[in-house]
Amino acid sequence: MSEDSPKRKSKAIPSSRLSRVSRLGALAGKIAGNVVTQGAGQLLKGERPALASLLLTPKNMTNVANQLASMRGAAMKLGQLISMDAGDFLPPELATILSRLREDADPMPKAQLIETLNKAWGEKWQDSLLYFSFAPVAAASIGQVHKAITMDGKMLAIKVQYPGVRKSIDSDVDNVATLIKLTGLIPKSLDINPLLSEAKTQLHQEADYNREAAMLTRYGQQLTQIERFIIPQTYEPLTSETVLAMDFIEASNLDTLLNESQEVRNAVMTDLMGLFFNEVFNFTLLQSDPNLANYKFNTETKQIVLLDFGATREIPESISIGYKALLNSAALQDKQLMAEAALDIGLIDKSHTPEQVDAVIGIGMEACESLNHNEPYDFGTSDLIQRLHDKGMTLTTEHDFWHTPPADALFIHRKLGGLFLLARRLGAQVNMRALAAPWLETT
């Protein structure tokens, strides 16, 4: 009834807090040793080494990626977020190394998998299934996915949470944050504690598969009138806090879109951008994880499959209203209106100088430049992302702007940033003005 040979080498997940802390401690020690060795070499050459350049070496990044990938859980999840944010702007060799965190993790050994399922389903669970593949079809940061068939022939995707993930979230976040701080890439004056707290909350939610099942159902109800999207339904008899059972949907990775026509790629990206607007303004429910693995494509029906709703979060009405005002200010190119909207959302506050506010609004206007094209905007040839990155760096270095916006705003920006990166990768052309029209006071 099963397949016993996994495609990738399995590695046991360290489940105790002590084992996970010791791994990160050993990692920090290894990095420190590399820094001392390389720094000494540069000093002997008469060079003055910078700490950041010593830390962000291929050797150190390889150690970080490998260790976080083997630990899975919150440690790997935070590594994924860092790599997604910085991957397009790091040197190619470092981006390649960190990309390992966006790929499949090493699956847990069969014995550990069986033990996990025994706790969730009882020890005779194999007798109640017609088929169960012990080789996972996907292995990510929080859990891995297996294919199963019920006795009545229903094909399921079974997401099994790694043991110890929930208990280790808080310590993983704190320890990885310590590693980030050690790089010196963020100032000591910046209070990231609210963000760390929010990260812990979100990761605890992602590790609650009962909550994800509820969000899957709730989000699916919003899509009943949109035929272009497919979403799996939860199979409740086999779902618990640590195991999520749902429909298994056959589809291809998004990279297959590179083989599709320009028309198909444009249509897919238009649908995804339109879905984002609906999430913020209509659903007030955001699937906030922009990981490309959360999207699949059916090459026959040209439908988009949406997966992984653990990171789904409710958007407060005040935030939704604020972003509608921000959208209108960009469409009208009204800087004063944008400043008022940014203040209401919390992107700026009254302590900021006029120069800082002007710089922030300038970035906001540039980020929304596609709204001022009443024709398809060509993401494939646009250098918008690089321009925004450069101006963001200038904002912090020259304008000394270190401000932590509300978590809701960060997740909205992360999702939109992920969609922009995908649109560029696909070379898509999207009429953003037409998509935004339902929420613009003047079109």
Could you explain the architecture of this structure?
- Helix 4 (73-86) packs across helix 7 and helix 10 (262-283) runs antiparallel to helix 15.
- The protein is of the alpha+beta class and 443 residues long.
- The strands form four sheets. Strands 1, 2, 3, 4 and 6 form a five-stranded antiparallel beta sheet that branches.
- The protein has 16 helices and 13 strands.
- The model is unreliable at 2-7, 13-18, 20-25, 31-56, 72-76 and 79-98 (pLDDT under 50).
- It starts with 16 loop residues before the first helix and ends in a 7-residue tail after the last helix.
Mean pLDDT: 80
Oligomeric category: single chain
Count of helical segments?
Answer: 16
Portion in beta strands: 5-15%
Query: What's the story with the biggest beta sheet?
Result: 5 strands, antiparallel
Summarize the helix and strand pattern as letters.
HHHHHHEEEEHHHEEEHEEEEHHHEHHEH
Low-confidence segments, given as residue ranges, are 2-7, 13-18, 20-25, 31-56, 72-76, 79-98
Number of DSSP-assigned strands = 13
Gross morphology is globular
State the end-to-end CA separation.
Answer: 59 Å
Residues in helices, as a percent range? 40-55%
Radius of gyration: 23 Å
Summing up helix and strand content along with how strands pair, one would put the structural category as alpha+beta
